[in-house]
């Protein structure tokens, strides 16, 4: 009985950490009852459709699966919550540290944090702290001790105990929060670098899988095929079907697996929420406070329509089977598809570049704003001064905020709009701190200083990570050009020599066709993989895709395959 009691207590703790509103004495019976009901239903269904043997297997399998899922669910949920907390922990404490600079009470800081959904699991933790202190009237020390035991994150539990110790001895919480933030940022930086090391290992396998193996197949198939034709014997490596299998199946599948693994390993700390459908927003009628404004034509509209007209022309040339210079047939089909989707691709990539550039200017803008406020200006006057400075793509936003503030709009609403409209997580976090800073009414100088330091740390961290990843961008490009060089040697030297004494076999045009298609497929998937590798976004790979496609296509048409 004691053993079962221990297990129940452990499961109760897991349920508590997972946020499941039940105890094991009620949760487990519900799981077992559900398993029996599902098993009985499956037994009846399989008995009617098949026979008693299948029905028994369905009964046992159904009961086992439901119990397994029911028991594992709290563990999985707790693990997901812990992951969300750990990912957002340093950035949440940047928020806490900034507000504490203005000597805002601890409970009020966590109340503000609970309203910010961008901090994921930390926002939920803050809601629990607020509920315990304001609804159940626990004192702040008891609340932190309780959350230290309940939270699924070991790292956050340690932080809670640190806060409790500081509260007991009466330490200056502003300094404690600053120290915790600095330590968490250093830990997060190390975690990101560890993730990059894992991705580096995967990148080496990717170059082998999608770069070296296709080259091996391209070089082996014609050689083995020619030898088989001369000896009049079959060879597995001489089977021409290996070429389409390699380019249409192996390269896409290996690339998708690589992108999925990298996307799962790399954290979301610097993710930009840019969509391929951003072009559609350019054609929306502008709307201000529910009032639709007159539609205005922009350069993007004319460019989009021009590209779509070119697409129609290329489709017509394809269906009429016309030739133009060295282009014909499938070339026009490819051009038609490319120009049809090009507006989506270029617009989304342009938005991606803009958001990336804005991230780089945020620390500079915040530093200027902080200096202006420290010189004695209020936030509105300081924003007007900053609006006269060039911050690249951020300038328009700064001017808009300055105008809104000068018209008397509340400062917190201006920053709230910034948080809602920005697509960068870094920008959203900065805006959330500035918004709460305006609401709290604390000393804005110290808060702005803290936010500026945080912004520079994030910028430095992102630069260091990008520098680590650059070498693998070079490696993947080298493997692409190695494939082009191998294709040139194959078509102009190896294949003519191998095939001149072989009669009735596959001609050079067959291999040339697959080598050309291999260039396009490799460019498409390698470019997308580079986007995931460098920025955790396929959209970031658009420049690599277009560059590889254009260079590969033109080199093949002009010099390699004709």
TrEMBL record:
The keyword Cytoplasm does not apply. The keyword Transmembrane applies. It is a multi-pass membrane protein. Its main location: membrane. The chain crosses the membrane at residues 27-50, 56-77, 205-227, 247-266, 300-320, 332-352, 470-494, 514-533, 545-561. Pfam families: T2SSF. It is found in: Cell membrane. GO terms for cellular component: plasma membrane. Keywords: Cell membrane, Membrane, Transmembrane, Transmembrane helix. Residues 96-220, 365-491 form the Type II secretion system protein GspF domain. This is Type II secretion system F domain protein. It comes from Methanocaldococcus vulcanius (strain ATCC 700851 / DSM 12094 / M7).
């Amino acid at each position: 009985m004691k053993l079962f009691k221990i297990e129940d207590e452990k499961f109760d703790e897991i349920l508590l950490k997972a946020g499941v509103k039940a105890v094991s004495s009620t949760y487990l019976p519900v799981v077992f009852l559900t398993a029996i009901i599902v098993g009985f239903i499956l037994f009846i269904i399989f008995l009617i459709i098949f026979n008693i043997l299948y029905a028994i297997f369905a009964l046992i399998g159904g009961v086992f699966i439901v119990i397994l899922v029911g028991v594992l669910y709290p563990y999985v949920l707790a693990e997901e919550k812990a992951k969300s907390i750990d990912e957002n922990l340093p950035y949440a404490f940047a928020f806490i540290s900034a507000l504490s600079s203005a000597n805002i009470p601890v409970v009020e800081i966590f109340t503000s944090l609970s309203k910010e959904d961008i901090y994921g699991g930390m926002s939920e933790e803050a809601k629990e702290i607020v509920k315990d202190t304001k609804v159940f009237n626990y004192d702040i020390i008891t609340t932190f001790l309780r959350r230290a035991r309940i939270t699924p994150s070991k790292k956050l539990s340690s932080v809670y105990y640190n806060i409790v110790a500081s509260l007991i001895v009466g330490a200056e919480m502003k300094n404690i929060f600053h120290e915790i933030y600095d330590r968490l940022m250093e830990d997060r930086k190390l975690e990101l670098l560890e993730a990059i090391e894992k991705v580096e290992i995967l990148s080496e396998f990717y170059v082998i899988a999608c770069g070296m193996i296709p080259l091996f197949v391209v070089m082996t198939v014609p050689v083995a095929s020619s030898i088989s034709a001369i000896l009049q014997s079959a060879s597995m490596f001489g089977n021409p079907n290996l070429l389409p299998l390699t380019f249409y199946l192996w390269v896409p599948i290996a690339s998708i697996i690589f992108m999925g693994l990298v996307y799962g390993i790399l954290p979301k700390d610097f993710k930009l929420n840019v969509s391929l459908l951003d072009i559609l927003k350019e054609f929306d009628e502008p709307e201000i406070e529910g009032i639709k404004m007159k539609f205005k034509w922009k350069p993007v509209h004319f460019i989009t329509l021009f590209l779509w007209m070119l697409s129609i022309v290329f489709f017509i040339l394809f269906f009429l089977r016309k030739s133009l210079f060295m282009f014909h047939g499938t070339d026009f089909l490819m051009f038609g598809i490319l120009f049809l989707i090009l507006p989506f691709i270029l617009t989304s990539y342009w938005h991606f570049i803009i958001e990336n550039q804005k991230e780089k200017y945020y620390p500079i803008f915040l530093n200027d704003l902080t200096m202006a406020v420290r010189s004695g200006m209020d936030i509105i006057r300081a924003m007007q001064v900053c609006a006269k400075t060039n911050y690249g793509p951020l300038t328009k936003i700064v001017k808009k905020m300055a105008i809104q503030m000068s018209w008397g709009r509340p400062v917190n609403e201006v920053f709230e709009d910034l948080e809602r409209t920005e697509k960068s997580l870094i920008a959203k976090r900065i805006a959330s701190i500035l918004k709460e800073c305006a609401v709290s009414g604390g000393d804005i100088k110290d808060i702005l200083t803290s936010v500026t330091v945080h912004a520079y740390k994030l910028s430095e961290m992102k630069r260091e990570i990008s520098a680590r990843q650059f070498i693998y961008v070079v490696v993947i490009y080298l493997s692409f050009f190695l494939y082009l060089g191998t294709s040139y040697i194959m078509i102009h030297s190896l294949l003519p020599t191998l095939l001149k004494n072989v009669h009735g076999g596959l001609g050079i045009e067959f291999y040339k066709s697959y080598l050309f298609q291999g260039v396009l497929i490799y460019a498409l998937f390698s470019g997308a993989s580079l986007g995931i590798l460098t920025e955790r976004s396929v959209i970031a790979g658009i420049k690599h895709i277009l560059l590889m496609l254009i260079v590969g296509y033109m080199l093949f048409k002009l010099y390699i395959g004709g």
